[in-house]
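Researcher: Structure prediction, please.
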Amino acid sequence: MGTFTARFATEEERGNWDSLVTANPNGGNMLQSASFAEVKSHHGWNPLFVVFESAEYSTYNLVIEKKVPLLGRFWYLIKGPDVATPTDVPAVLSALTEFIRRSNLAVFAVKIEPDIIDDDDVRAVFARAGLVKTFNLQPNDSTAILDTTPEPNQLLRNLHSRGRNAVRRAEREGVTVQRMEPTDENFRTMYRLMTHIEDRSAARLRSFEYYQRFWSNFVSAGQGRLYFVHEEGEPSVGAFVINYGRKGTYKDGGSKPRRSQYGDSHLLQWTAITDLKNEHGIVEYDFCGTPPSDKLKDKTHQHHGLGLFKTSFTKTVTDFVGCYDLVLSPIKYRAWQKLGERVLRQLYWRRHRQPFY
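Model: Predicted structure follows.
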């Protein structure tokens, strides 16, 4: 475990933010991107850009900040910190604590969410550092990740047999996948398709304006694209996928129920994967959300259907550690846990009909 320092990024670093984040030890995450930071700035959060440095490496991480009445500032180190080894997390947070106190930033707690695989050893490291386990927030805290490094024929053979057979049948039966222009009309069509997904009821789906800004930002940055499959002349399956560094992500998807084209969703994903591999050299593709590995066969889990689809490409489910809180002011944090967080989430939902986080 090395020693780190923490600071805010310079103006020049912020101007090159994505190239710096994607050079982090684990290649960064799309939720640490400049595009996503801009989205959150319109939805109640203040983006901050933080750099951790040691003799061995530097890591660039997005923090989103919320000011909480009477308590101070709450920081969410979304999908971070991105570190070379789990044992670097306590050292990074020690540097962050010193930086916050030295700068009089009045932060009472920091939520972290590193893409570190969950196991007993990691939990022990975090416990010794005094971190508090909290509920997970991101859909891909458990997820299916496909290794996309093999050559195309081998990559297809590496898919789970269910996925491979569905792709081949859809190709034989003439299913066509189209990359769509990022127009307002196509975005609205995509949003309508998303309302059919089993675990995205209208009560949980964010507003169209949120997705429109998200999709537009990533498209403008050259990091996002939209695909449709049509049936009887109408869009029947849609997906918005992202390339961030050498990682691909199936960010959003939707489809009409009771379709007649077998394997259409599988062929769309296969097309997106091969396009991102050919054009951007992605080394992995994140299907962005499954049940946890120990709940994969639980038919009552809200993500069961999506889990079946996503694990038809790769059997392996990756469970990340999820969210932990670094407590900087114990008294204020207790107030946050007992009442503050719940009240703010309820008020934000009533006012905006949107999730707090």
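Model: The chain is about 35% helix and 25% strand.
Researcher: Thanks, that helps.
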